[in-house]
UniProtKB/TrEMBL annotation:
The chain crosses the membrane at residues 20-41, 53-71, 91-108, 120-142, 154-172, 192-214, 226-246, 258-279, 317-338. GO terms for molecular function: phosphorelay sensor kinase activity. Keywords: Kinase, Membrane, Phosphoprotein, Transferase, Transmembrane, Transmembrane helix, Two-component regulatory system. This is histidine kinase. Residues 769-994 form the Histidine kinase domain. InterPro entries: GAF, GAF-like_dom_sf, HATPase_C_sf, HATPase_dom, His_kinase_dom, HisK_dim/P_dom, HisK_dim/P_sf, Sensor_HK_Regulatory. It comes from Dictyobacter alpinus.
Length: 994
């Protein structure tokens, strides 16, 4: 396994070189056409002197052009930074040398001026030309996109070539009995035939080797370039056949076949063009798949496996050919010629070479078989070890523990220095640039570390590529997140090999390994790790499924709990909001859950909070800001649907300290800014994304749930919410909305029920009050009237007048009671005082009027009235209603305090409000207990509830007073210790008038 790291390429340079290849193709076609026309014209004028010069020069030029193209491809492969090995460079460089050898033949012939007549010159020409074969053979062996052939396969091809040469030699020299050219002896002719046969055999050998490489080529496009190279070899064979036929059939004075030169021209140009095509294929493969070299991988091996039977005869065809050659030798020896025949001797020599090659092939095959058996045994042993190690992993269902154990096995059992596991977090979703990767790293020096990354990083492209590759850290270190880059720098390893983790065609992640010194061969170790990756893919898939089931079970349990709350007995909104926060934290794995409820003022106020520490949520509510509904609606186009709130920048760009996080905020995002109050609160807890899920009731925003996860300081992973979590939040908030709405409805029903009970109680109190307070004066009226009616004739005039006055007083008392009842009903209905009735009122004048009204009662009780009020106090009030309130309080002070005790009126500026005045009325009665004071201002409530109490009243006076003062923008309250003789003080606060 050899793969190259991914690196970006200059697209402009790639397009420029592609245009260069197209122009080279056009130039080659033009050159072939011009050469063909020239050769046709020359064939019509064979009697011209020097007619062999132009073909030889043309062959030399075209061979140099093809060599230049091959050298150009080699130079690009050497100079481009995305080519990280020298295989392509060396392959095309040797092809360059081979084409130069092809052109050197024409150069040699041009420098001789005369056709070669001696063996030495002829041998020199073929020797120079034969350099073409080893150079091209080495170039083919190094071609990119092919697997190196075994030595036995090369020997098989060589045996096949020798057998074909031997059979050809037999039929050409012994059977056919061709006539010799004039002026050439038999020995000279055999020498020429041997050289020609050697040349053609070299071409056949290269063509057979190329066919074998076609069998092992993994890439379809690379196979096409090899076909182009094969076409060039075919034309070279045709040229060699034409040249060889001329050498053995004609005298040196006869000109060469011009069509052989044209075949050489076409062959040289095709070979040169194939190198440019191969280079562009590699660049295109790099751009499309992220790799810059198309080497054989697992997929290519699988693709070729089905074709090997089709090409099997290319490798094994030497067997029947050897039998044929051996049979011809036997026939020749036994029946046809003498053994001392020179042609027969050459046949025997060639057959002996084939025999030695067969023995050599047997030795190679034996050694390869032994190596394969050892490798098989070792692989079985390694496979058994891998199965044993994976069996230990199968019991681990937690992904965190599984990743740590996988790394531990790679380091302790396989001897790697460092290891990395990259897994997809959203394994059940299509892989995209927004997918999150969970990266776990381990080494002998550093404990296991976990990271969570997202975006188009080098690791994402590595996983998406689904192929084995070697990642060079010095090239791609800058593309890693800062945490991973720091980890890599501490390891001091130049590269890491990655193997895809694939389960049933679905990519789960990648497994990376590295060590400073390898103890086994790369190929064997790659096979072991590949098998290990295939085995752990099953375990990881099971862990994913277990995690998914656990998450679904936890979410379902939370939904069941919410449903149970819906069917449970009545719960208060505060109580159910706390339960919703707790269940939401469990269901969505949220560190923070805040529950906001809507208020009538267009605000969202926090009602319950769940946080990672064990503090009471009631103690934390004050830390969460109140939100304005208008500001919330500005955050999203659909305020009635859950959405992801981007709180701050990515964690990777955040400072590493809390103070740094504070300074990272812009000025308009500081905690003092209301617009960003929630963002500032969340960023203080290192929260970078949050889900805002509204509670909707009847198409109206009723509340808000905020789910968030914090990133602890110094943590290597970011588990913040993303768009994929919104669906679960939507399902949860729908159930929570129903539960909270039910709680609110229950609270409303409970409040209404309490109000009904209170009204019922007030009705009973009213009936008691009416039956007592109304019956007493009514009985007096009825009694005096009956006395007058019965004894009118005998009653003195003065006594009759007294009875009538007392009956009149009873009627007036009844009228006052009924007036209070009607006044309370009217105040309840109106609930406010018209602004036009509010005037600037002097406190001093108002108290003087009250004192005049109560003067008769004060004189009768022999009381002292103290009024220490400065004339400077003015308030805004309804004069008539303020007089009514002061009369109610003053009358109560006289009724509920012993005769002879003083009554005090006072006024002062309020200490609570700078623009308010407090009017106070103090008596020296028995006081009011603190527990009775909150109910004192309710309707029909009386402290003297005894039916025999001498003090009568409707229980509406203080209630009416409270409502009137509140309607004027003030308030009324009482101060009393409930000690007899300590008395009570009623305070009235009203807005001050200048």
């Amino acid at each position: 396994m050899k793969t190259i790291a991914v690196e970006h390429i200059d697209l402009a340079s790639m397009q420029k070189r592609y245009r260069y290849s197209v122009m080279a193709l056009i130039f080659a076609i033009f050159l072939v056409v011009i050469s063909g026309i020239s050769l046709v014209l020359m064939s019509m004028q064979l009697d011209l002197p020097g007619d062999d010069l132009l073909p030889h020069i043309t062959v030399f030029i075209t061979a140099c052009v093809g060599a230049f193209w091959a050298f150009q491809a080699s130079h690009w492969a050497r100079s481009d930074p995305h080519f990280l090995d020298t295989r392509s460079h060396n392959a095309w460089l040797f092809i360059t040398f081979g084409l130069l050898a092809l052109g050197a033949r024409g150069l040699v012939e041009n420098t001789m001026f005369d056709p070669p007549t001696g063996h030495f010159l002829l041998l020199l020409r073929y020797a120079i030309f034969c350099l073409f074969y080893p150079c091209l053979f080495i170039g083919i062996r190094l071609l990119p996109g092919t697997s190196p052939l075994r030595a036995s396969m090369i020997v098989d091809t060589l045996i096949t070539t020798c057998c074909l040469a031997g059979i050809f030699w037999y039929f050409f020299t012994i059977t056919l009995n061709l006539p010799l050219p004039v002026g050439i002896g038999f020995s000279d002719w055999l020498f020429r035939l041997r050289l020609a046969l050697l040349s053609i055999s070299g071409d056949v050998f290269l063509l057979l080797v190329l066919l074998l490489y076609l069998q092992h080529c993994a890439n379809l496009h690379i196979r096409r370039s090899i076909w182009i190279l094969g076409g060039g070899l075919v034309f070279t064979i045709l040229g060699d056949i034409g040249c060889s036929w001329h050498d053995i059939s004609f005298t040196p004075s006869v000109p060469e076949n011009l069509w052989a030169n044209l075949a050489w021209i076409i062959g040289a140009l095709l070979i040169g063009l194939s190198t440019l095509y191969q280079y562009n294929i590699q660049v295109r493969a790099y751009v499309q798949s992220g790799e810059n070299a198309a080497t054989v991988g697992q997929e290519g091996a699988i693709a070729i496996r089905g074709q090997r039977l089709h090409w099997f005869h290319v490798q094994s065809m030497y067997v029947p050919l050897a039998f044929i050659l051996g049979g011809l030798c036997i026939i020749e020896v036994m029946y046809l010629h003498w053994v001392n025949n020179e042609a027969v001797n050459s046949l025997f020599v060639l057959s002996s070479v084939v025999g030695m090659l067969i023995v050599t092939r047997h030795l190679f095959a034996t050694r390869e078989n032994e190596a394969l058996l050892r490798e098989r045994d070792q692989r079985l042993q390694e496979a058994e070890q891998v199965r044993y190690l994976v069996t230990q992993l199968s019991d681990i269902l937690e992904l965190d523990a599984l990743r740590e154990r996988i790394l531990n096995v790679l380091i302790t059992q396989f001897g790697f220095t460092s290891a990395m596991v990259v897994l997809l977090e959203e394994y059940d979703q299509p892989l995209s640039e927004h997918s999150h990767l969970i990266v776990s790293t381990g080494s002998r020096l550093v404990n296991t570390l976990n990271y969570r990354i997202a975006g188009d990083t080098i690791l994402y492209r590595l996983v998406a590529d689904r192929k084995e590759c070697e990642l060079l850290w010095n090239v791609h270190a800058n593309e890693l997140p800062s945490e991973l880059r720091h980890w890599q720098e501490r390891q001091h390893i130049p590269s890491m090999h990655f193997f895809p983790i694939i389960y049933q065609g679905k990519i789960l992640g990648s497994l990376g390994v590295a060590r400073h010194v390898l103890s086994r061969s790369d190929a064997l170790m790659a096979s072991i790790i590949r098998s290990y990756a295939d085995q752990i893919a099953i375990v990881i898939e099971h862990a994913y499924l277990y995690q998914d089931v656990q998450g679904r079970e936890k979410f379902a349990r939370a939904m069941v709990n919410i449903s149970t709350i819906l069917n449970a007995a009545a719960m208060e909104p505060i109580e159910i909001s706390q339960l919703i926060c707790a269940e939401g934290s469990n269901a969505l794995h949220a560190d923070y859950v805040a529950f906001y409820t809507r208020r009538a003022e267009g605000l969202l106020e926090p009602l319950a909070v769940t946080m990672p520490d064990q503090l009471e949520s009631s103690d934390l509510l004050t830390d969460w800001p109140t939100l304005r509904i208008a500001e919330y609606e500005q955050e999203t186009a659909q305020p009635l649907h859950p959405f992801l709130l981007e709180v701050g920048p990515s964690r990777r760009t955040q400072p590493s300290s809390e103070s740094g996080a504070q300074t990272a905020l812009s000025r308009d995002q500081q905690p003092g800014s209301r617009q960003f109050a929630l963002r500032a609160k969340l960023i203080r807890h290192r929260i970078y994304t949050a889900i805002l899920a509204p509670l909707v009731t009847g198409g109206r925003l009723n509340g808000l749930l905020i789910f968030a996860r914090s990133v602890p300081l110094g943590s290597n992973s970011d588990l913040s919410f993303d768009e994929a979590d919104i669906a679960n939040a939507q399902d949860f908030v729908e159930q929570a909305s129903v539960a909270f709405t039910n709680a609110q409805l229950y609270q409303s029903l409970s409040s209404a029920n309490e109000q009904l009970k209170e009204l019922d109680k007030m009705k009973d109190q009213f009936m008691i009050t009416a039956s007592h307070e109304l019956r007493t004066p009514l009985t007096a009226v009825q009694g005096y009237i009956e006395l007058i009616a019965q004894y009118d004739e005998v009653l003195p005039k003065e006594q009759r007048q007294e009875f009538l006055q007392r009956a009149q007083m009873g009627c007036e008392e009844l009228a006052i009671l009924l007036h209070n009842v009607m006044d309370a009903s009217r105040i309840e209905a109106e609930a406010a005082i018209k602004p036009a009735l509010i005037k600037r009122v002097s406190v001093k004048n108002m108290l003087d009027k009250v004192m005049i009204m109560i003067e008769p009662q004060v004189t009768h009780d022999q009381r002292q009235v103290i009024c220490d009020v400065s004339p400077q106090f003015y308030v805004y009030a309804d004069p008539l209603r303020l007089h009514q309130v002061l009369m109610n309080i003053s009358t109560n002070a006289l009724k509920y305090s012993p005769a002879g005790t003083p009554i005090t009126f006072s006024a002062a500026y309020s200490t609570e409000q700078e623009t308010a005045v407090v009017i106070s009325v103090t008596d020296k009665g028995k006081g009011i207990a603190p527990q009775d004071q909150p109910r004192l201002f309710q309707r029909f409530y009386r402290l003297e509830s005894d039916m025999n109490s001498p003090v009568r009243g409707s229980g509406l006076g203080l209630y009416i007073s409270r409502r009137l003062i509140e309607a004027m923008g003030g308030k009324i309250w009482i101060e009393s210790r409930g000690i007899p003789g300590g008395g009570s003080t009623f305070h009235i606060l009203l807005p001050m008038a200048r």
